[in-house]
Amino acid sequence: MTIYNLGSINVDHLYMLERIPKPGETLSSLETHITIGGKGLNISVAAHRSGADVRHIGVVGSTDTSVLDMIAGLGLDRALISQVDVQTGHAIIYVDENSENSIVVHGGANLCFSESQIRTALSSAQPNDWLVLQNETNANEIGISIAREKGMKIALVAAPFNAKKMPEQIKKVDLVSMNKTESELFEVISGTSIGNLKSIDFLITYGADGAVFLSDGVTQRIAAHKVHSIDTTGAGDTFFGVFMAHYTRRGCVKTALKKANAAAAIIVQRRGVASVVPSQKEIDTFLET
Description:
Order of helices and strands: EEEHEHEEEHEHEHEHEEEHHH
Distance between the termini: 31 Å
Helix content: 25-40%
Radius of gyration: 18 Å
Strand order of the largest sheet: 5-4-1-8-9-10-11-12-13
Shape: globular
CATH class: Alpha Beta
CATH architecture: 3-Layer(aba) Sandwich
Oligomer: single chain
Largest sheet: 9 strands, mixed
Mean pLDDT: 94
Number of helices: 9
């Protein structure tokens, strides 16, 4: 079982602040860090560190060799990552003293996927493999079409939520991950309850209030661990990546939720995302204690 993750790669510029700036206001940061990330890459790293066979399909700028080196340093194979003459995507992330964040993303190379690149990347994919998508690239529709041709299963992280495109894409996949706000917006736009869509499984995250998995009318819930959070950036990405690692291997929702819940509790106590995603050993140790 292989997870092909067609996802974004960003250079993250993280600024720790006392509070998020108001319009027209200039603040000095308390700390700053530059790391590798992106919703897609974060998910790949989280799944990889929980033991999944992950192939990341991505695009970076042709001059950004250091980005490829950092990706390799995270343990991911770079074979399916293409280079184009466009700047690598990047994000500006503000985190305040209450661990709330505000993020601006520039797509850059993440918006330069081609159909030929995706067809080549998925040439060895098998019907029982998964394609993971999220909405920081230009490739969701292409990816869905090719994956369906090959009989793959498709998981979609419906973020950033696009009110025009996302409702229709959601109806074309097997598993959808959304947070509370996104799920409520989807129900308003689509005019139907998530519970009525029996052919699609939904993983809904509620931050400090845990998560819910809905499948064919059956609901499984898990409460979040109570920890001291210092940075919630990427917690959802980590949750989903770890969930997919366990769910795709054994199909046990209860175990997948338990492991993902622990991983999210660990990472919110750390600054950054991809470089500090917990290993499976760290997750198991957390659960034991």
